[in-house]
Design a protein that fits this description.
- The chain is an alpha/beta fold and 347 residues long.
- The chain contains 15 helices and 11 strands.
- Strands 4-7-8-9-10-11 form a 6-stranded parallel β-sheet.
- The two termini are 28 Å apart.
Length: 347
């Protein structure tokens, strides 16, 4: 980036809060950790500072306080959350941290690292939202994955504090039933879950670290706990074929999460997934997967088929009849936008 631009002369890599403060204080560039900068047309790279500790994360002002002052939250929607909603993070990084396609674990907080704010600090932010943003109807916790231990501690503290606001989070598909039941008790609404693929070979290639059977058991337990699931499935991984992609589509129907998305995989620079495709010449000019026996056009067609199979089905019709507000009226905009993508417009 610095080599290609005329106007940008410095870039912060990784956590940016303290380096930004140093820049604002006019600290010499050579003394600012996490900084890349230009000096006489040469790119200089400084040392990386350690990841922020829990204590340092607690010292950062609440993002919800910033949003209240700077954003009109009524301009932001997501179909999985009551409107309006609030995004927060309670920690950085991913406890698993090995998935080859994940941008964040290879470029931001790298590896199997999950540094967290104290539960007391998180509860204070929830209290702030309830008191100072009473129109907010739910909170989306944007941590890469919420772990069993973290879930139990947070839910117990939330219940004890008498905080009623609904919330959702990203979850790895191996949480215990005890955690899921506690989440429901603490007024959790929705889990965003990365299932990715039904193929054992693909799951191994991308270092997902979960078996199909484990994810099926998790799904059963989440439904038993009466939690909604938004399932993330993906097409275009190394080792995938037309046949295994179709199996993933069938598996999504079998799992039957409340809602689902079928994403064309994006190989992000900096990830092992991208490096593998680039090394083998498996990228289109636009940087999309394109394999010798599994073309980009086939991947695109299968993604359209996946959406049609999931949303134009007796299963989804049954859900829509039982709860038309949640499955139809709440999603009208998304439905109208999806129709061209599913049928006639290039993905």
């Amino acid at each position: 980036l610095l080599q290609k631009t005329k106007y940008i002369n410095k870039v912060i890599q990784g956590e940016f809060e303290y380096p930004l403060v140093d820049i604002a204080k006019n600290i010499p560039e050579k003394d600012i950790s996490n900084l890349y900068y230009k000096e006489n047309n040469e790119i200089k790279k400084n040392n990386q500072r350690p990841y922020l500790s829990g204590k340092e994360l607690d010292e950062i002002p609440f993002i919800s306080e910033f949003f209240k002052k700077q954003l009109d939250i009524y301009k932001y929607r997501t179909i999985s959350e009551p409107y309006p909603f609030m995004d927060i993070m309670t920690g950085r990084g991913c406890k698993w941290g090995l998935c080859t396609y994940c941008l964040w674990v290879h470029t931001y907080i790298k590896g199997s690292v999950y540094n967290v704010r104290s539960i007391e600090n998180v509860i204070e932010e929830f209290k702030y939202i309830e008191k100072d943003l009473p129109h907010v109807r739910s909170v989306m916790i944007q941590d890469d994955t919420f772990t069993d231990e973290r879930i139990m501690e947070f839910c117990e503290a939330k219940i004890k504090a008498g905080i009623k606001i609904k919330w959702s989070c990203y979850a790895r598909a191996n949480l215990t039933y005890e955690s899921l039941a506690m989440m429901k008790k603490a007024n959790c609404l929705n889990l965003h879950v990365g299932y990715e693929s039904a193929s054992k070979e693909v799951l191994k290639n991308i270092k997902k670290g979960l078996s199909r059977e484990t994810m099926e058991k998790f799904t059963h337990n989440a439904k038993k706990a009466r939690l909604h699931i938004h399932g993330d499935f993906a097409l275009g991984f190394p080792g995938e074929t037309v046949e295994s992609a179709k199996e993933t589509i069938k598996w999504a129907q079998k799992l039957n999460p409340h809602t689902a998305q079928f994403q064309l995989m994006i190989p992000f620079p900096g990830t092992p997934f991208y490096a593998l495709l680039k090394h083998n010449g498996w990228l289109t000019e636009k940087g999309e997967p394109d394999y010798p026996d599994y073309s980009n056009e086939q991947i695109r067609c299968l993604a359209k088929q996946a959406y049609r199979s999931f949303y134009i089905s007796p299963q989804y019709l049954y859900k829509a009849i039982r709860d038309p507000y949640y499955y139809v009226f709440l999603r009208l905009k998304a439905i109208f936008r999806a129709i061209p993508a599913m049928f006639w417009r290039r993905w």
